[in-house]
Structures are given as structure tokens and as C-alpha cells.
Write a structure and sequence with these properties.
The protein is mainly alpha-helical. About 65% of the residues lie in helices and about 0% in strands.
Length: about 80
């Protein structure tokens, strides 16, 4: 049960940046769950701490997860 709630928290913590890119919760989980457990296990299940940890360690994230933290592309006028 604890593992399942950790996945939910991880996905929720990434939803704001990923939503700007049109990512789904399933894509967020798939891209980042391994990185969260590898890099930030002590912060789970606190979503703010997980997000802050992963942001701080962005250079160590897998490419797919790092893309979830990318700022939305600038709109052209």
C-alpha cells in the first residue's frame, strides 16, 4: 500500500510542470518513478519534498523524466 501511495504522490508532484507540456499522469509515473525512488527515497511520500529533490537533482534524472521538468515552450506570436 505504501508503494502505491508513493506512486500517486510522485505523479501528483509532477503534474504542474508536466500538465504544461500536455503529459498524462501515467506518462509522468512511467518517466519518473524509478528516478524518484533512486534519487529521493527519503522524501517520499511528501510531494513537495519529492518535487524539490528531483528539481535539485535534475542533472541526474533520466532523459524522459528530465523532460517532465522542462519549462513549456514559448508561444510564438
Amino acid at each position: 500500500m505504501k508503494m502505491k501511495s508513493a506512486f500517486f504522490v510522485l505523479a501528483a508532484s509532477l503534474s504542474v510542470p508536466a500538465a504544461a507540456l500536455g503529459q498524462t499522469r501515467a506518462q509522468e509515473e512511467q518517466a519518473c518513478q524509478d528516478d524518484a525512488f533512486r534519487l529521493c527515497p527519503d522524501q517520499i511520500p511528501d510531494e513537495t519534498q519529492v518535487y524539490n529533490c528531483m528539481t535539485r537533482l535534475k542533472a541526474k534524472l533520466s532523459p524522459a523524466c528530465r523532460a517532465m521538468f522542462a519549462p513549456p515552450p514559448a508561444r510564438r506570436r
